[in-house]
Structures are given as structure tokens and as C-alpha cells.
Specification:
This is Histidine phosphatase family protein. Pfam families: His_Phos_1. By secondary structure, the chain is an alpha/beta fold. It has one domain: Phosphoglycerate mutase-like (Rossmann fold, 3-Layer(aba) Sandwich), CATH 3.40.50.1240. It contains seven helices and six strands, in the order ββαααβαβααβαβ. The protein has a six-stranded mixed β-sheet. The N terminus is likely disordered.
Length: 197
Amino acid sequence: MSNTLQPLSDHWRNRYLLMRHGHSQANQQGVIVSSPERGIENFGLSEYGEQQLAQLVADWQWPVPTRVVHSDFLRTTQTAARVAAKFGLVPSVDTRLRERNFGELEGRGDEHYPSIWALDAQSADHQHHGVEAVSAVAQRMQAVIADWEQQESGATILIVSHGDPLQILLTMLANKPLTQHREQQALLPASITQIGG
């Protein structure tokens, strides 16, 4: 359920816990929910996702976060709230942590993901079917880390986001081509990957 990367820089000012939201209703139904119009108010955690979070919080094995930041989608908001409550923190929203927008594939079955990922492997800038380019996702995710590196020092920041954005971020931080983001180990729901610190 977890992955730990060696510090990717000698200059990290903070420690980051990159968390994918718990198992969601969209996961359960096998549908793509990537637009704010559908994802902010609907498709929260599934019953299994709630159980995952309860277990994770009860058996917390990570450094204690000092801040919790999350995407404004319902599934990430609920995930962040569960962890923040455990540590007496007030979570904050950063819309740059949103799911990658899958354009015309919104609301369709998740069996459509691999066709987009195959295109990703050819170009990090493609926008076929109105999909948000991998390079654009990388840029907004990197900006979140860069901002915290400027604002804080010595903090442990839990960042709750989504599978594709987190895998793209990790690919970039590992100095690998963004076209290889699906070669990263897949991030399971409610998994945490530590970087820095």
C-alpha cells in the first residue's frame, strides 16, 4: 500500500507524503470522473474506501503531517478530512491537485484509460479526445511542491491527489521522461509515497 522513494534532491526543505485518495465510487463503478463539474460534489469514497481510511488512520506508519493539502474533488476531500481529523489539522484545498481531465472520455468506462496512456507514451503534449496533456499536469503538480518549498521549511505536508497526477509528478521528480509515467509502479487507492525529508 505504500512506496518510499529516496530523497530526489539534497535540497528538500520539507517532507512530502503523496497520497492517492481512498477507493472511490468511481473506482467501484469503473467510470472516469475527471471533470470538476462531476467530481467536486459526487463520486466520493466507496464503503471500501471508508474502511481503507479507517484502517490507515488507525495504523498510521508515516511521519505525522503538519499540513494536509488536497484536490477539491469529493474523493480527495473526504480522504484528506479523515487523515486531518486524526492529527487535529484543518485541511486546505489546492485546485492544482485535481484529477487529470480526460476530456471526451468523461463518464465513460475506465477501460478507455489504456488507449490514452498509449498516446502518452508517444507524446507528453498530446491532447487527443480533449485530454489534459501530461506536460500540463506535470507543470501544475510541480508548482504545488515549488510553492511549499518556498513557503515552509521543516514541514511534513500530506498532499492528497489522484493516480495519474501523482504518477506524473513522481516521474518528473525522478528526472524521467514524462512519456514514461505509466512505467511508474501504479499507485493504489489510499497509498502513500514519501519524498524529501
